[in-house]
Write a structure and sequence with these properties.
Elements: E1 8-11, E2 15-20, H1 31-37, E3 41-46, H2 65-69, E4 83-88, H3 90-101, E5 106-112, H4 118-122, H5 126-144, H6 148-160, H7 164-167, H8 170-179, H9 183-191, H10 197-203, E6 208-213, H11 218-230, E7 235-239, H12 246-249, H13 251-262
Parallel strand pairs: 2-3, 2-4, 4-5, 5-6, 6-7
Antiparallel strand pairs: 1-3
Length: 263
């Protein structure tokens, strides 16, 4: 599914940095980081399919990471200058794919709690993969039945911690459940990818930084451990607390790491 250009927000001048948001978030997720980076870079935060005014996904086609990654192409400078890409969670998986597709155009990659779950299956991490499958199945089953608040409760409690859903005010729950709908298709992209570690090692930039939280969920923790084993030349940074959503709950810790990685 090709579109001319996705919805986006931008700030600053300089070398281009493309920001790719997580599920249920949208480009506005990056406003704080954009303030940090905009003095030194031209920062572009794109909206993936179904976010902002970027069209929703075509339900007649199975979504792939390639489909999402191609949304980056309009923001590659016409003069051939290389860009850096930052992605969080699902956006991290999309960022990896974009760096593969446009490998000669990407200088640096920053992956914040990336979620290429299929690698857990490929590497025999059966219990962690089953955890991802359970969440995927809930989103698919509840989404198909239009029971979005049930799906949203499990999603929120998994990624933001037990009890997170109950702590939300009712109006926030309604908005969250609505924002979850694109995730129905994103699971296909992140579970059906088949690029092995051996190929990633050949196409992703050596100047890649992975940022994770020490108290993150098991699936992400094991993905990061796999990356540490396969990419010893990469930089791995850890924040002590904040979980999967540390980019939002601990911006004072995560944003300086991102800025340092881009320098």
């Amino acid at each position: 599914m090709l579109i001319e250009q996705p919805d986006f927000i931008e700030a600053g001048h300089g070398g281009t940095v493309v920001l790719i948001h997580s599920s249920v978030a949208g480009a506005k997720q990056w406003r704080g980081l954009m303030k940090v980076l905009s003095n030194d870079y031209h920062v572009v935060a794109i909206n993936l399919f179904g976010y902002g005014t970027t069209p929703g996904w075509n339900e007649g086609k199975t979504q792939t990471l390639r489909d999402q990654a191609q949304l980056v192409e309009p923001f590659l400078p016409a003069d051939g200058t290389k860009v850096s890409i930052v992605g969080h969670s699902f956006g991290g998986s999309v960022a990896m794919k974009a760096a593969q597709l446009y490998k000669d155009r990407v200088r640096r990659l920053v992956l914040i709690e990336p979620n290429p779950f299929y690698l857990l299956r490929e590497q025999g991490c059966h219990e962690a993969y089953a955890e991802a499958v359970s969440l995927r199945d809930t989103i698919k089953e509840c989404g198909s039945a239009e029971r979005w608040e049930v799906a949203a409760e499990k999603f929120a409690n998994y990624w933001a911690g037990p009890g997170s859903w109950n702590e939300m005010p009712d109006d926030r729950k309604t908005k969250f459940a609505q924002a979850l709908k694109p995730n129905f298709f994103e699971w296909d992209a992140v579970m059906h990818e088949d690029t092995p570690f051996t190929e990633w090692s050949q196409v992703l930039p050596r100047d890649t930084t992975v940022i994770s939280s020490a108290d993150t969920v098991r699936t992400i923790k094991e993905i990061v451990q796999l990356m540490e084993g396969h990419f010893p030349e990469w930089t791995f940074d850890t924040v002590a607390q904040g979980g999967h959503m540390a980019i939002r709950s601990k911006p004072e810790e995560v944003n300086p790491i991102v800025a340092g990685a881009l320098r």
